[in-house]
Amino acid sequence: MGLLRSETMKKGTLVVPNERARKVIHELGSRTRIQLEDMNAASMRRVYKTAVQRIEECERIVRVLSDQIEQHEGSDVTGHTALRKNMEEFLQSRPGYKFEEVEAELKRAYSQLQSARDNHRGIVEQHARTLEEKYVVHVAKSQLAYDDPTSSRGSIRGLLAAEMADAGTVGFFNLAGVIGRSEQDRLARALFRMSRGNTFTSFHPIAEPIEDENGKPTLRSVFVVYFQGGANTVMAEKVKNICTAYGGHLYQWQNNIADAEKRFQELNDSLEEGKGTQDAYQRFLNTEFATLISSPRANGNSLLEDYRMHLVIEKSIYASLNLFESSGSTLRCDCWYAEAEESMIAQTLLSECPDREPSALLIPTRAYYHAVDPHSGGQNPPTYIKSFGPMWIVQEIVNTYGTPEYKEANPMILSLVTFPFIFGVMFGDIGHGLLLLLAGVYLVLKGKSLVSEYGPEYGKYMYEGRWLLLMMGFFAFYCGFLYNDFVGIGIDLFGSRYVEGEESAGGKGVEWVPNFDATNTGVGAGPYPFGVDPAWHGATNQLLFVNSMKMKCAVLIGVAQMVIGTLMSFSNAVNNRSKVDFMFVCVPQLVFMCLFFGYMDYLILYKWTHKGNSPSIINSMIAMGLMQPLSADQELWPGQQEFQAANLLILGLCVPALLIPKPLCLYMTHKVSPAGYGAVAGQDDDEAGHGHGGKQATESHFDMSEIVIHQVIETIEFVLGSISHTASYLRLWALSLAHNQLSIVFLQKTLLAAMAFGGGVSGTLAIFFGTSAFICISMAILMGMDVLECFLHTLRLHWVEFQSKFFKASGTKFEPYNHQTVLENA
Fold it and tell me: What is the domain class of 146-255 according to CATH?
């Protein structure tokens, strides 16, 4: 019953003592399924707002720590951060963490790590500056080693000094520093323009990258700027400003080799000390992170993952408590729950009540069995449908369109079979269906490892959808045998029932003669035992025969599914105890469907099983609609003309039967007894007297014009929709034809064309490339695009053509408070 219709729901009031509120909600979330209503929606008063903010701060710390662990380069930690994120293990072990202890531990770890990182950031920056100065001193040493103005091998400084001595000018100065390689050309141009050519800048690239202010390794160069004047001149100040503006770091230039050697050794010693400090910092990070990713239980989650899940659950607990209304020493909240779980909820509350202390109570109000009328002021209970195994993914497909109303017939139970079957009718091919079937078998055998391999977002749907893919592949494989189609080739499994006849007049071809009881007289052998006879493949009239067969099968399948959908509306009317809907909506709809489209299906089956006249079925239906007489050669059986006239009369009466009686019955009932309107419209006596949510049925809104307009729209939509929906099922034939023709074209233009090259090297290469092209094109288009196309068309046929006959999809999904659901959505 829980599959065809939703569980019977009850509404109650949960009363919890303040001092045990957190413990009670935790146990309810662990062991039961109960949906809480917001009692503070109007006032927006949230008693536990501060607690939620504290938990959110802890969650932020967990995210920061997780990011730092992911970015950490320590060999002892790398590769272990993504392991042991197991929600089921955490819920089963139920570790007894306390929020205050978790908060203190997280803040301690966060504070220590932040302090260590700040210190390390300063050490790294100092290390980078020391390394830069080391290279500046190295350049200074190389310059000073050749600082002889009289020598032809003299340094730049020596050459400039000699040149200035010859010119009779004295005094020049140089500034040195380090700048990024990407900025060195811009710096040189800026200095040249500022000094109007009175500066000379040389660059010396540094081989190893050095970390910048953001910790990113960058390539840098040592620059030396030579200019006229001293250290305190205006020119020196301008050079300093420009170098600083372009991100350069200035360092002292040594004046002699001895000072340079001494400073170089001091810098090396400083670098060694800095390396030891960085190693100590890495060891500290390894220790802290190893503690956070270690598991407190055998084969359990890491400690940090435990903290994260614990915080998610704690946050959900206090968010749930914010829905409660405070009344002195207790908290009160209205709730929904399944009637079958009431005893479990009561036992959970009782187990959490120590002796001689106030206990939590669940005060049930009443059970809800039937949906309220859409014109009344009541509120439907939430819809709770249990689904598991292969039913889950099909229920998700239904819920994507809309949630069923409370106690409304659930399309999932039929779509579980019809969805993969209709897909198979469109996709039917032995070869391609087998590939799809094997893909489903692989997903079934792969099991839950898909979730861990592809992540919870994609892996879950692949895991839950494995059964649907398996059934889609099976029905595609099965229908491929019915069509006798293997990638565009017919397979002769049982021997053809046709024999080669004489050549037709004009030499247009050979006509194959049936070697079985083609007229269905009951004498002689039967036809091909399963599927289409392989003799039809390659025949000149193959498309004419196959299209006619598939088109008629599509109509038969479509009408059958729509009639089943109409019958489901009877179950809704019976469940809602609505005699008006049963007599003046469901019955006329079923009669209309059977006498119009059921009659068309009967004509198809009659032509298949009887010999004699074979008039066009479409012409017969048009003649019935236009009330045109049928000649003797247009009748399938004697008296068909009289039957169609009576059939059209009954069809004409179905329209006013759908349009008029229901609004009149509702109006008369409301005039006689306003309180009885709900019972006639779809509520039982108990609901009519009490209503939902504390409203009386006499307060229900009744607008005759609204009801009439609604009924007119429903009637027009059903009558016209039935015709368009029947035509829409022809996509079963169209997509099957497209798949078959694409298979034939791909086979002919690739593999068969390659075989036409004959033998030899050219033939071998042609077959190799032709086979490769055939496989690639088939996988990309037929196994990729066409699978998606057939899936979408199957989805449309179920959402529109099938479900529109009985499915309103205006319900509210039951969203209980449950720890597993909370962790899945986190």
Answer: alpha beta
